[in-house]
Structure formats: structure tokens, C-alpha cells
TrEMBL record:
Membrane topology note: Multi-pass membrane protein
Keyword Transmembrane helix: yes
Pfam families: Tmemb_40 (PF10160)
Record-given protein name: Transmembrane protein adipocyte-associated 1 isoform 4
Transmembrane parts of this sequence: 36-57, 69-95, 107-128, 148-169, 181-203
Source organism superkingdom: Eukaryota
Keyword NAD: no
Family the entry assigns: Belongs to the UPF0359 family.
Alphabetical UniProt keywords: Membrane, Transmembrane, Transmembrane helix
GO cellular component terms, semicolon-separated: membrane
Compartments where found: Membrane
Length: 218
């Protein structure tokens, strides 16, 4: 009996208390896993959209070849890239709860969100052109501006994720990380401001600068 009591005290004294890691690397039990049905609801629409793009790829490529618009060609390529990244992100949701996949999930989520941001910003840049520009100069200007914004966004997110351990892409059970939600709120407010400006443009003095319908729209 004394030996058993001594063993219990020894085991309890050397067992370290659980330490919560805000970066999602403290084990599977602290992460919120959404389950198979949630993953299916994400994967099915992503697969259907990629299939839709694949089915219409030949027709769209012919339109792009005949139209020779660098803007539409670039947008179509960005759409394929973002769709592929989105499909991978939706299909690999289990990485959130898999031990040792924290860095891979953060990188995949970071690249995927940056791909969509680049797609959105480039589309906004194309629409704000005075016409559907076909020149390399206008295209380079659009991608330079959107590329700088995306690069800054990626850099800041990477610093907060890998430097400060902010779980931007993890749902941790019982955790309300104020910095995480503060960063997301700030980003959404900035994007809302941009899109609000876009909605305001057709009713403002800048509406004449909006492009007309292009014959090669897909």
C-alpha cells in the first residue's frame, strides 16, 4: 500500500499539466473537427465547379484564342488556379486534426486565401480599366498592384501565424483568440470597403469609365 501510494504521488508529480498551444500544435483533442458531412458539403461544390470548367474548357479556350484578350486569358488562368487550390483545401480538411500537419495546413490555407485574394483584386483592377485593355502595360500595372497587396497580406499573415502563433486557420475548442478574430475583422472591413466602392461606382461620376460588355465573355 505505501509503495502504491508513493508511485501515485510520483506519477502525478512528474506528469506535466497540459499546455495550450495557440498555433494548433497541442494535439488533436483541442481542435474542432467538423466531420465527414461538413467536408462533403465543401468538396462537392468545389468538384462540380472544376468539372464545369473542364467541360467548357475547350469552348472557352477557343473564345480566348479568337478574342486575343490578355485580360480575359489571365483571368481565366487565375480562375483555374484558384479553383484548383480551393479543391485541394476542401479535400484536405482532415489536416486540421492530423498530428504533424499543422505547417502544411497553414501553408495550404495561406496560399489558397492568397490565390482568391489575387483573383478578386485582379478582377477589380480589370473592371476599373477604362476599357478591356489588351496591352501588356495595362496588364502588368494591374498585376503589379494586386501582387503587392497579396504579397503584403501573405507576409503579415505568415508573421502572425509562424511568428506569434496566431491560429488563423484553426478552430480551437474553447478558445476565443482575440488577435485572430481582430485580424479577420480588419481584413473583412477593408474588403467590404473596396467592394462597397465598386457598388458605388455605377451611380457616381466614374460610371463612364466602366467597360462595356465584351463579345468573348464566357
Amino acid at each position: 500500500m505505501p509503495n502504491n501510494l508513493h508511485q501515485i504521488i510520483t506519477n502525478s508529480s512528474i506528469s506535466p499539466p497540459p499546455i495550450s498551444n495557440i498555433n494548433g500544435q497541442d494535439g488533436q483533442s483541442d481542435r474542432q473537427c467538423h466531420g465527414v458531412w461538413y467536408d462533403a458539403l465543401l468538396v462537392v461544390p468545389a468538384v462540380l465547379f472544376v468539372v464545369y470548367l473542364a467541360v467548357n474548357a475547350k469552348k472557352n479556350v477557343n473564345k480566348l484564342r479568337n478574342g486575343r484578350s490578355l485580360v480575359l486569358i489571365s483571368y481565366f488562368a487565375l480562375l483555374w488556379l484558384a479553383s484548383g487550390l480551393n479543391l485541394a483545401w476542401c479535400s484536405l480538411q482532415a489536416w486540421q486534426c492530423a498530428s504533424g500537419k499543422e505547417i502544411a495546413w497553414n501553408l495550404l490555407s495561406l496560399i489558397t486565401t492568397s490565390g482568391f485574394l489575387c483573383l478578386e483584386l485582379s478582377l477589380v483592377g480589370f473592371l476599373l480599366q477604362e476599357s478591356y485593355a489588351n496591352g501588356l502595360e495595362a496588364l502588368a500595372r494591374t498585376f503589379t498592384i494586386s501582387g503587392i497587396i497579396v504579397a503584403v497580406d501573405m507576409l503579415l499573415k505568415a508573421i502572425f501565424i509562424f511568428g506569434f502563433g496566431v491560429p488563423l486557420f484553426f478552430d480551437v475548442v474553447g478558445s476565443t483568440h482575440q488577435m485572430k478574430w481582430g485580424l479577420w475583422i480588419i481584413q473583412k472591413l477593408l474588403l467590404t470597403t473596396v467592394y462597397g466602392f465598386i457598388l458605388f461606382v455605377p451611380f457616381s461620376k466614374w460610371r463612364e469609365k466602366l467597360p462595356h460588355q465584351h463579345s468573348t465573355t464566357m
